[in-house]
Design brief:
Strand 6 and strand 7 form a beta hairpin. The chain is flat. The two termini are 28 Å apart. The protein folds into three domains: 207 residues, Immunoglobulins (Immunoglobulin-like, Sandwich), CATH 2.60.40.10; 135 residues, Jelly Rolls, CATH 2.60.120; 113 residues, Sandwich (Jelly Rolls), CATH 2.60.120.1200. It is mainly beta. It has four helices and 33 strands. The strands form six sheets. Strands 1, 2, 3, 5, 8, 9, 11, 13, 15, 16, 19, 21, 22 and 23 form a 14-stranded mixed β-sheet that branches. The chain binds calcium ion (2 copies).
Length: 472
């Protein structure tokens, strides 16, 4: 069975690719922990992060390019700002991300968090929960700090997840509101953002620990974390700033789209990461398909459009399997300078996929069960509708699994698609080809089966979708 690269594998940074996907080794070699920032960075502009922050070295040609696209600011993208509302940085913000990716105490490359009141021996042996450390070397000029957790949602029914910083009171970790009143019963891999009170943090080494509750075997896990510091914006020292430059007229005629960035000083830039706002499969289990598409992996941005760490910091985005879009795609970039300070560019509106002879449809799953995990010869199902087979050229099953390699077998309409997905105790995003003859016009039913006596093969919310590529 041919495995097809997922979004996270398309990042142009080969180093990131090798570290994350192929070797599954520690990302220490990819994460720069050089914390040489001596003074708080400052920037000209407003305090609210919504005003123009522009590069000042635009050439004549790039100015013309800019004229052909509109740079939009926060107030102009109402209805398309879920990313910002969920606590992530907005255009104009200046941040620094402190990454934690180990040492892992009770698993390899991930860490368990167990209900302290658990009674079964297989859970109790992981207690007490580890106290972890992270160095935040400089809080001068920092306005606020938040934590982003790469979270496996855990065993069915695990709830009341909390974090404690430096021995202070427990802080709630919110589940996605879009999952309703019982989020603890969905299998999911999410990226919650937790606001940390400044008075709980110290310059230097900080400790953090987690907890949870459950009526059964309460346990969740994380693979990595980010402590993200936001700096006050002040007049004075200028930061590296920039604007994303789209293809001419914002139209992508081929499947490969080149994105560039117009930088105020490229000599001070370490890397540029491009993120798009568009509709695609829900890879962060929040039941939102149309949003800024990215997540984190071992503390680094992942599943985004791409990263470049070489001047002139452009990327080529393979849009072959990006679904058709109702609206132009918004794109912004995170610019990381040589001191690991990150600025967020304005969002550029927008990129249109100019598809004359092809079309890509994303069909969303429904009738998806809660607790979508199987073991011990159990099987569970969900559905997807394919309204039209005319012109169908290729099709893919799209999904995220946890422990998918525990003998998970995946069927459509009772015919096997694959028995080889994912990893043992880890998240995996996959797009797997489906033989076209197995697909029915109308309702199709996926079924997942596993004979394992080990951990459930879990299908992350929102279940198993389908992408179909049509020729017109
Ligand atoms: Ca989502
Ligand atoms: Ca999201």
């Amino acid at each position: 069975m041919k495995r097809i690269q997922t979004k996270s594998m398309k990042a142009v940074s080969v180093v990131l690719f090798l570290c994350i996907i192929v070797t599954s080794l520690t990302l220490v070699g990819c994460v720069n922990n050089d914390s040489s920032l001596g003074t708080a960075p400052t920037i000209s502009g407003s305090q609210n992060g919504t005003e123009t922050i522009k590069g000042n070295s635009a050439t004549e040609s790039s100015s013309k390019e800019e004229a052909s696209q509109s740079v939009v600011y926060l107030s102009d993208v109402s209805g398309r700002i879920d990313f910002f509302e969920s606590g992530h940085p907005v255009p104009g913000d200046i941040i620094k991300e402190y990454t934690w990716s180990g040492p892992y105490r009770n698993a390899a490359k991930w860490q368990r968090v167990t209900d302290p009141d658990a009674t079964r021996e297989s859970a109790v042996r992981f207690l007490p929960n580890p106290i972890n450390k992270i160095v935040i070397d400089d809080l001068k000029g920092v306005e606020k700090v938040e934590m982003i957790i790469e979270m496996w949602g855990g065993h069915n029914g695990t709830h009341s997840k909390k974090v404690k910083i430096n021995g202070n009171d427990w802080i709630d970790i919110k589940e996605p509101e879009s999952l309703g009143s019982d989020p603890q019963f969905y299998m999911k891999y999410t990226y919650p953002v937790v606001s940390i009170p400044m008075e709980q943090l110290v310059e230097g080494e900080n400790t953090f620990e987690f907890t949870c509750k459950s009526n059964a075997w309460g346990q969740w896990a994380f693979t990595g974390l980010v402590f993200r510091a936001y700096y006050y914006k002040q007049d004075g020292e200028s930061m590296v700033t920039g604007n994303v430059v789209l293809p001419k007229d914002g139209r992508a005629e081929g499947e490969e789209v080149t994105l560039a960035v117009d930088l105020s000083d490229s000599s001070k830039v370490k890397k540029v990461e491009y993120i798009g706002f568009y509709e695609d499969f829900d890879c962060d289990s929040d039941a939102i398909y149309n949003e800024w598409q990215f997540n984190y992996r071992f503390g680094n941005i992942s599943s985004h459009i791409g990263t470049s760490d070489v001047a002139p910091f452009s990327v080529t985005w393979d849009t072959t399997w990006v679904p058709d879009q109702e609206k132009p795609i918004l794109i912004l970039a995170r610019i990381t300078d040589v001191n690991d300070i990150i600025t967020i560019t304005p969002a550029v509106d927008g990129l249109t996929l100019d598809r004359k002879d092809r079309s890509v449809k994303l069909y969303k799953p429904y009738d998806v069960p809660k607790d979508f995990g199987v073991r011990a010869n159990n099987k569970k199902r969900c559905k997807v509708d394919v309204p039209d087979l005319t012109g169908m050229k290729e099709a893919r099953m799209v999904l995220a699994t946890w422990a998918g390699s525990h003998h998970g077998e995946f069927f459509i309409n009772d015919k096997l698609i694959t028995d080889n997905i994912g990893f043992s105790h880890d998240i995996s995003y996959d797009e797997i080809p489906i033989p076209l003859e197995l697909i029915l016009e109308g309702t199709n039913e996926y079924m997942v089966f596993s004979a394992t006596k080990e951990h459930d093969v879990e299908i992350m919310w929102p279940g198993i979708g389908m992408k179909v590529l049509y020729e017109k």
